[in-house]
Amino acid sequence: MTKAVRYDEFGGIEVLRVDDVDRPVPEDGQVLVRVRAAGINPGEAAIRTGAMADIFPSTFPSGQGSDLAGVVAEVGAGVDRFSVGDEVIGFSEKRAAQAELVLVDVDNLTPKPRNVSWEVAGGLYVAGVTAWRAVHSVQLEQGEAVVVSAAAGGVGSLAVQLARRAGATVIGLASERNHEWLQSHGVIPVAYGAGVAERIETAAPGGVDAFIDTHGGGYVELALALGVSVERIDTIADFAAAAKYGVKTEPGTDARPGAEVLAELAALIADGHLEVPIANVYPLAQVRQAYTELERRHTHGKIVLEP
Ligand SMILES: NC(=O)c1ccc[n+]([C@@H]2O[C@H](COP(=O)([O-])OP(=O)(O)OC[C@H]3O[C@@H](n4cnc5c(N)ncnc54)[C@H](OP(=O)(O)O)[C@@H]3O)[C@@H](O)[C@H]2O)c1
Questions:
Q1: Which residues are 141's β-sheet partners?
Q2: Residue 68 lies in a domain
Q3: For residue 130, which atom of ligand 1 is closest to its CA?
Q4: Ligand 1 mean position to 175 CA, how many Å?
C-alpha cells in the first residue's frame, strides 16, 4: 500500500484525507514516480468545492494535484527516455500528484537539474507554465510597460520575472510586505486597493502597453480603463470578464507542450535566472493545513507538500 490524498465529495478543507491505496502499476508509456514534492494551487481548491464542476467535472473518490517532482521508481513498456533512479519534474493530468507514488505519462516529464531543489521543482508546473504562457500571450517588446496583478503570488512571482526577461518595464501589484522582493527582482511595486489606477499611471508615465491579471475581481476593467488594448490583456482568473470584453485567457492558443516549457523554466532556475519563492513546506499528512494557508490567498510564491 502507499499513501495518497483523496476526497469523496465536494466540500471544504475537511473533506481532504490521506488514504492507503494500492501501489500503482505503470502501463505502456507510463512512469511511476516516487514523489519528493508536490505543489498546491488555488484551482484545486475550486475543483474540490465543486465551484468549477461545470468546467472540470469530478468522479469520486478523487485524488488531487498536478505539480510534482520525484524519482523514477518503475517504468512501463516502451519508456526509454527515463530509467529507475532518474530525478524528474512533471505533472499529473489525472489529479493524482499529491501521493507517495504517482503514474505519469512519459511525455509529461522532464529531467530535474541537480541544483534545482525538490520544493522548487515540485511546485513548478502549474504556476510556471501558466506564467510562461501568460507572458507570451501579451507579446511583450523591449521597453514596453506591463502591469501584473497578484505579482508576488504563485503565478505572479514567476510572471514578473519572465516579463523582465522579455525586456519590459514591469509594474507589480502587491501588498507592502512584498514590495522589497519585487524591487529586488527589478519590478516596480505598486500597492493595490483604492487609488491603484493613479499609482500605476505615476509608475508608468508613458502609459501601460500590456496587463497580466493573475488575480481577477476587476483587474480586466482596470486594464481597459488604463487604455490597454484587448489583445494585450491576459487574465488567468476572470473568465467572465474575458468573455465580456474579449481579452485573452491563458493558455490561449500556445500549444507548446507543458514538459517543454517546464524544461526551459528548470534550466533558467538552474542557471540562477529565475527564482521560485517557497512560502511553506508541509508533510503530505498536513494537506488540510497547507490548503488552509493557500486559501487565505496571500501566499508569496509556492506552498509545497512533501510525501
Ligand atoms: N487559467 C489557468 O490555467 C490558471 C493557472 C494557475 C492559476 N490560475 C488562477 O490564477 C489565480 C492566481 O493563482 P496563484 O497560484 O498565483 O494564486 P496565489 O499564489 O494564491 O496568489 C496569492 C497572491 O494574491 C495576491 N492578492 C490577494 N488579494 C489581492 C488583490 N486584491 N489584488 C492583487 N493581488 C492580491 C496576494 O498578494 P499580497 O500577499 O501582496 O496581498 C498573493 O501574493 C487563481 O485564481 C488561480 O486559480 C489559473
A1: none
A2: yes
A3: 5
A4: 12
DSSP 44-65: HHHHHHTTTTTTS---SSB---
CATH number of the domain to which 28 belongs? 3.90.180.10
pLDDT along the chain (307 residues), means of 10: 98 98 98 98 98 95 98 98 98 98 98 98 97 96 98 98 98 98 98 98 98 98 98 96 94 76 98 98 98 98 98
Residues 108 and 13 in one domain: yes
Residue 280 Cβ < 6 Å to ligand 1: no
- Same domain for 82 and 148, yes or no, is no
* Spatial separation of the C-alpha atoms in residues 170 and 162, rounded to whole Å: 10
Question: What is the C-alpha to C-alpha distance for residues 43 and 159, in angstroms, rounded to an integer?
Answer: 17
Q: Give the atom of ligand 1 at the shortest distance from the alpha carbon of 249.
A: 1
In a domain, 297, yes or no: yes
178 lines ligand 1 (CB under 6 A): yes
Quote the CA–CA distance of 205 and 29 in Å, as a whole number: 53
- pTM of structure: 0.98
Range of the domain at 228: 128-245
Q: How far is the CA of 25 from the centre of ligand 1 (A)?
A: 36
**For the domain that residue 149 is a member of, what is the CATH number?**
3.40.50.720
Q: Is the CB of 218 under 6 A from ligand 1?
A: no
CA of 78 to the centre of ligand 1 (A): 39
Specify the ligand 1 atom closest to the Cα of 127. 6
